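Hi R.,

Here's the chain you asked about this morning:
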Amino acid sequence: MIRRLVITPAADQDLEEIATYIGHDNPAAATRFVSAATAAFHELVEMTYVGSRVLVNDPRLTDLRRRRVPRFGNYLIFYRVTEEAVQIVRVLHGARDIERILDLDD
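And the predicted structure, written out as tokens:
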């Protein structure tokens, strides 16, 4: 079964904000980041469980998985897998308070 890719508005905004941040110092790196993240999204559709489970205390978030953005390992893709889709929930820097941010989203 081939699942469809769904990128949430929050994840789309994350990509834009990260690219803007990186682009202040290095516009070419910002372009590479967006390309790497987008390619990783599409790879998740083919290999849905390549990422690891997110270990959090909040039971509402137990179905989340994460994968690093290739070549930008400090950035993490948070996603859910359903029967129909791979949903990209957020793209966040690993140093942030991930659980708090994800909790605010739900």
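The radius of gyration is 13 Å.

Let me know if you need anything else.
M.
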